[in-house]
Amino acid sequence: MILYKNDRLTFEVSEKDIKIEGIIDEYFLFSSISFTPASDIVLDLAKLEKINSCGIREFISWLTSLPGEINVNYINCPIFFINQSNMVHGIVSKNRKIASFYCPYFNEEKEEEVEILTKIEEIVDMKAPVHEGLTFDSIEKKFFNFLILQNE
Amino acid sequence: MNNMTPIKSDYLMIDIENDSKLDHADLCFFGNKPFELIDTALLSQSGDDWNKFQLFGVDERVKTNETILSSLLPGTSNYQRQSISIVIDELTTNAFLHSNSKVPLVEIHWIYNLDKKSITLRISDNGGSLALKEILNLFRESKMPLTPNMKIGASGAGLGLFFCKEFSSQIYINVVQNKLTEVTCVVPYRPNKESVLVVSTYEKQL
To answer: Is the minimum CB–CB distance between A110 and chain B shorter than 8 Å?
Structure first.
């Protein structure tokens, strides 16, 4: 079922989750979504291409409009979404948590970037999982700061 | 513009690694003193080599963004593509949102730097409404509170410019009040892990 659609953005509800595909910008109108979840929801962001500063406000407004007892879990979060979650209040919180996300690595030998899907359980003491031949390509305590934010 | 006199300039050096702990004591100001990192990537290119675009409306940014992304070299990292896309999106939107010109005109200039990997993006508009003090205050923040919904024609709290801090290694802002705002960002090939982000602002008046 399509929950929301504009030229560049789709929210599609399946049995397990809500898949968000495209770009969240100022053309996203959360008020046109008529959806009241009965239980916790999972947002699959694997195909989210970009979210800009105007879109973030609208996106958080939509999250805020959900019933207070509903928990939101984000899965397959792109790297830029993690960066922005660390920068803006309201994307993650006690009841809005990132469950899985892409970590940036770099293969120095091949000189190429590698993105590895990671579950939060794999992050211990704010350290990135070790993968042979790869260097974690960000500042760990900054990149993983959302873990603190969503447990505050 | 040669007859304009600079009234203020400031350089702000931000400790990237400890960004989340920034407070006034962590910031270094250099006043009008020259700063050695300023000219590394920018001043070595001829103006004629820049790729140029003119935008007359905010909706044009989408197509322009796609055009620029499609013309990047094949080896451009995904991180850099996303960073460029975000910086163009935010700065062009800002330019149209806040331009106080009756006929807003936004220009995008971009070029590969001498390392052939990092990219310099310059977005300018014919408005000139940013104030030096506001910019520096904005970059002091390590985390932004949300402001009410922002749409075209409304004012914001600088979240777009704040995002550009995250996706750039150097930022230069020139403002001629009511005439020009010019934001130049150096977008690195890989995430910025260096210890500093340099922000330079320069404000002139007629």
So the answer is: no
Q: Which of B22, B61, B151 to mutate to test the interface with A (most CBs of A within 10 A)?
A: B151
Q: Which helix (H) or strand (E) holds B54?
A: strand B51-55
pLDDT tens for each residue of chain A, 152 residues long? 898 999 889 999 988 899 999 999 888 988 888 888 888 999 999 999 999 988 888 899 899 999 989 999 999 999 999 999 988 888 999 999 999 999 999 999 998 999 999 999 999 999 999 999 999 999 898 899 999 999 87
Taking contacts as CB-CB distances below 8 angstroms, the residues of chain A near B188 are none
* A103, A118 contact by CB (below 8 A): yes
For the question of whether the overall pTM of this predicted structure is more than 0.80, the answer is yes
Alpha-carbon gap, residue A139 to A19, rounded angstroms: 29
Nearest CA in chain B to A140: B17
The angle subtended at Cα A89 by Cα B96 and Cα B17, nearest 5°, is 90
| Alpha-carbon span A48 to A10, nearest angstrom | 9
CB of A91 within 8 Å of a chain B CB? The answer is no
Which tokens sit at B108?
A: 């995008």
The ipTM, to two decimals, is 0.87
